[in-house]
């Protein structure tokens, strides 16, 4: 029978330094000690993973590619709305609102225009496909101008803007058909209103009128152009100061939107 002394010493010998070192060096019993050491790194990994999730930054904004993919569809929407309005001459109030809403949607997605470092975007000949001011049925839009219409002697044809960013030339070109007494055919002319332009700020264009040139087309195209003299500034009425300003609210390689100083919305495509 074991003595009381040996019983008391047995448990102590199990946890003594000599009894622990041998199994650990051999990698044998006492799996509970090995398991404890293996679990500690796992606990740390779980803790780090949770903290990373909790401290993660907010999601990034949508990439620029998403905007570039949306712009073509918004352009198509705007062009579809204005394409059947005869440049705005046949637009009613509902048409004006739809065109304005579509233009604002495109302007918002594309963001502000900055031409200070990219003025070359203006270069070229632009064809007017819509003007909200033409719904007033005059060539001047919201400004005084000749009346238009099928039964009236003046019919508006194509309208262009020719811009040269090097020489700062800014020409408004309008093809006009003037009625004539029967049996004479209508007189077809091209009127060119020559301006110089300057950039104000990042997207505002100021134009200064210089002269008007009228050139006949069709059967009378051989006639030389007629230059209309400029009215002296002292005699010019306040409603016709010879200059104007408008903002370019959207522009890319083939489409341009402008908003005039009297609220006129215009849409151009490259010609």
UniProtKB/TrEMBL annotation:
InterPro entries: PAP, PAP/fibrillin_dom. Pfam families: PAP_fibrillin. GO terms for cellular component: plastid. It is found in: Plastid. It comes from the Eukaryota. Residues 74-268 form the Plastid lipid-associated protein/fibrillin conserved domain. Keywords: Plastid, Transit peptide. Its main location: plastid. Belongs to the PAP/fibrillin family. This is Plastid lipid-associated protein/fibrillin conserved domain-containing protein.
